[in-house]
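User: Predict the complex with 3-methyl-2-oxobutanoic acid.
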Amino acid sequence: MKKKIKNLIKKKNKTPIVMLTAYSGSVSKILDKYCDIVLVGDSLANTLYSMNNTHKVTIDMMILHTCSVQKGIKKSILIVDMPLHTYDNKNQALKNAMKVMRETKCDGIKIESNKKNYNIVKHLVKSNIPVMGHIGFTPQFKKKFKVAGYSQKDTIKLINEAKKIQEAGAFSIVLECVASSSSKKITKALKIPTIGIGSSVNCDGQVLVTDDLVGLSGFKPRFVKRYSDIAKTINKSVKKYTNEVKKKIFPKKNNSY
Ligand code: KIV
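Assistant: Here is the predicted structure with 3-methyl-2-oxobutanoic acid placed in the model:
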């Protein structure tokens, strides 16, 4: 296992882990200064490509964006989401994960749990591919949004699922929209760190989609906190530019050759 990933696991019960998404080098260059992990999430489907879900994302889309993101990374752990139907069986998963690792030089991949694919995690880890798991709300496998882990029965199921992913060799697990008390129990039951999104402060770290955090995506569910309003800034700038072009204020001599 890479030193960077070993050091990340050591943060459990010590320092909260910071993770955010990036789809380009210009953004990853900023995130790299602050984040432990930068994720090229398949959320790019919704955020960048205006798709209704993540189901049509391809390996080539993920590779292209990750190659850009990689240019901005100096120290963070770079993780890439494996799209739906790129890890349906062991051979396919290994072939695709190796392609992603080779072509992007990322540090590992993330796969969503369908409560059956523990053997895929095991196979990838055995082949030296660091794997991050993902449980709770898993957009690739669930049609309707639902918070997981409100009932005791659900919590026990989630703990078992997380333990199986840990046993398969994953180095960390994303908990997406898992009820707070359930997140606490899962986090306590594991040796590897949990990274929450909409899963409370009870996780070992937090992840958000950067476009949501800066107010670019327009997506504002309960679990998102907007730290800025970039859409407003872009709007203001474009309005001013339009006005200046129309009034021939821009370009000036010093903007011209
Ligand atoms: O695709 C993504 O951005 C993700 C995060 C929300 C964890 O999986």
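Strands lie at 17-21, 37-40, 77-81, 108-110, 131-136, 172-176, 194-197, 205-208.
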